[in-house]
Amino acid sequence: MERSFIILKPSCLKRALVGEIISRFEKKGLRIVQLKVARLPREKVEELYQQHAGKPFYERLVDFMTSDRVVLMVVEGRNAIDVVRRMVGATDPVEANPGTIRGDLALDKTDNLIHACDSPESYEREVRIFFDERELSE
């Protein structure tokens, strides 16, 4: 079984969409391994998005992700990373297909409700920023 790392962004909590989004993952057969609500420190968000440092949207993204609480989640299932990415949809909600989380619910490219890892390598890097080994063991 593969695992995927997901962050439900501050707007997801503000708009009361957490339950709906988690329900979509569970209905797809993904199992929640770990879940916690937290306010992220700036340095952890900067580490998460380090590949975007210097880009025009970077500061706005970091400010947004540290503006309020988020839900950090690890799910597990067959081909979990690809399944989650397909369910999430394109980064820009305008380009996201109907039926995807962003296509149905997101309002803006930066405020697109959800972050999901895109490869096994990004999973390993990202999950270690927010969860320790004890939290991820069964």
UniProtKB/TrEMBL annotation:
<dbReference type="Pfam" id="PF00334">
    <property type="entry name" value="NDK"/>
</dbReference>
<protein>
    <recommendedName>
        <fullName>Nucleoside diphosphate kinase</fullName>
        <ecNumber>2.7.4.6</ecNumber>
    </recommendedName>
</protein>
<keyword id="KW-0067">ATP-binding</keyword>
<dbReference type="GO" id="GO:0005737">
    <property type="term" value="C:cytoplasm"/>
</dbReference>
<feature type="binding site">
    <location>
        <position position="102"/>
    </location>
    <ligand>
        <name>ATP</name>
    </ligand>
</feature>
<comment type="function">
    <text>Major role in the synthesis of nucleoside triphosphates other than ATP. The ATP gamma phosphate is transferred to the NDP beta phosphate via a ping-pong mechanism, using a phosphorylated active-site intermediate.</text>
</comment>
<keyword id="KW-0547">Nucleotide-binding</keyword>
<dbReference type="InterPro" id="IPR001564">
    <property type="entry name" value="Nucleoside_diP_kinase"/>
</dbReference>
<feature type="binding site">
    <location>
        <position position="91"/>
    </location>
    <ligand>
        <name>ATP</name>
    </ligand>
</feature>
<feature type="domain" description="Nucleoside diphosphate kinase-like">
    <location>
        <begin position="1"/>
        <end position="138"/>
    </location>
</feature>
<dbReference type="InterPro" id="IPR034907">
    <property type="entry name" value="NDK-like_dom"/>
</dbReference>
<feature type="binding site">
    <location>
        <position position="85"/>
    </location>
    <ligand>
        <name>ATP</name>
    </ligand>
</feature>
<dbReference type="GO" id="GO:0004550">
    <property type="term" value="F:nucleoside diphosphate kinase activity"/>
</dbReference>
<keyword id="KW-0418">Kinase</keyword>
<keyword id="KW-0808">Transferase</keyword>
<dbReference type="InterPro" id="IPR036850">
    <property type="entry name" value="NDK-like_dom_sf"/>
</dbReference>
<keyword id="KW-0546">Nucleotide metabolism</keyword>
<dbReference type="GO" id="GO:0006228">
    <property type="term" value="P:UTP biosynthetic process"/>
</dbReference>
<dbReference type="GO" id="GO:0005524">
    <property type="term" value="F:ATP binding"/>
</dbReference>
<feature type="binding site">
    <location>
        <position position="9"/>
    </location>
    <ligand>
        <name>ATP</name>
    </ligand>
</feature>
<dbReference type="GO" id="GO:0046872">
    <property type="term" value="F:metal ion binding"/>
</dbReference>
<dbReference type="GO" id="GO:0006183">
    <property type="term" value="P:GTP biosynthetic process"/>
</dbReference>
<feature type="binding site">
    <location>
        <position position="112"/>
    </location>
    <ligand>
        <name>ATP</name>
    </ligand>
</feature>
<feature type="active site" description="Pros-phosphohistidine intermediate">
    <location>
        <position position="115"/>
    </location>
</feature>
<dbReference type="GO" id="GO:0006241">
    <property type="term" value="P:CTP biosynthetic process"/>
</dbReference>
<feature type="binding site">
    <location>
        <position position="57"/>
    </location>
    <ligand>
        <name>ATP</name>
    </ligand>
</feature>
<keyword id="KW-0597">Phosphoprotein</keyword>
<comment type="similarity">
    <text>Belongs to the NDK family.</text>
</comment>
<keyword id="KW-0963">Cytoplasm</keyword>
<keyword id="KW-0479">Metal-binding</keyword>
<keyword id="KW-0460">Magnesium</keyword>
